[in-house]
Amino acid sequence: MTLARAVEVSRRYQTVRALDRVSMEIHAGELVGLLGPNGAGKSTLINLLTGLRRPTGGRVELCGGDPRDPASRRHLGVTPQETGLPPTLRVREVVDFVAAHYPDPIRRDELLDRFGLTELAKRQTGGLSGGQKRRLAVALAFVGRPRVVLLDEPTTGLDVQARRALWDGIRSFHVEGGAVLLSSHYLEEIEELAQRVVVLGGGRVLADDTVAAVRGMVGVRRVSLTVGELPPLPGVVGVKHVDGRTHVLTADSDAVVRALVTGGVDFSDLEVRPTSLEEAFLALTGDGGPAVDGGVPGEADGGPAGAGPKHAVAGADR
Length: 318
Ligand SMILES: Nc1ncnc2c1ncn2[C@@H]1O[C@H](COP(=O)(O)OP(=O)(O)OP(=O)(O)O)[C@@H](O)[C@H]1O
Known about the structure:
It is globular and about 70 Å long. Helix 4 runs parallel beside helix 5 (160-175). It is of the alpha/beta class. A six-stranded mixed sheet has the order 5-6-7-3-8-9, with helices on both faces. Helix content is 27%, strand content 29%. It has two domains: 2-214, Rossmann fold (3-Layer(aba) Sandwich), CATH 3.40.50; 221-274, no CATH class. Bound molecules: adenosine-5'-triphosphate.
């Protein structure tokens, strides 16, 4: 069953084309990652699916209807990118307030426990840390026992522990059959949680597949070595220098190794391995990409030439 759908959806803001004929679906029970650099169109897509904005082309559906119709949103839970909480209310009061809007809300204690908020139940939200507020804001999306939850960068600004607490809450909802769309700059997060990943870039869907398949599509490998100057090498997508090691991202690791050997390059400790999703992402989008958590910021030297997404829906340059 399809719970949310975008069909050839476009959205313009004056001269900015935020989304350009985007099609994607979220089915019951799926946990889908929405990945893309700043300005890719992630929030715009979520805003269209939640009925906050209208598409300028194409159509969106939520639970079989128009998301702008309140009846379609009855089974929806959302946490937008920015939220506000009434500062004088206590955590448990905020949960009760939101729960009062639903016919069959989740028990407050259960919700707080799922999201690691039990200890904070009696605290006024104005006194919570930024990360604690964010966890509460995300937990509130689940109060009404939704069928589908859309989370716009739920863990931005959270430390590792808080992020894990949130992941646990999201996972427990998913295990019980709930569908989730979660946008993120954190590729490790998508890898950790999602079955499917939709990669957006420049308002277009660059790929829509399993995490493993997206990595496979890019086909980029990382050749790591200790070396001085590098000669020109075939199929190189990017070069990084980290702690005295040189990491070459390439579409053809065999050709790179052959070129190193035949070119008489003085190198040591050569290692070839598959890319992380982060690297796949950089190769798909062909730019520096977003700030990534715990990873090396984008240092791709060039576009995806030679390593372009073989089966991606659309090239980044279109
Ligand atoms: N209200 C608006 N008015 C004008 N332009 C907008 C508006 N909202 C978004 N945009 C533009 O549309 C494009 C897509 O923005 P969007 O916020 O959807 O991207 P995003 O992928 O969510 O980015 P981020 O990761 O930075 O949140 C950007 O170029 C942005 O500047």
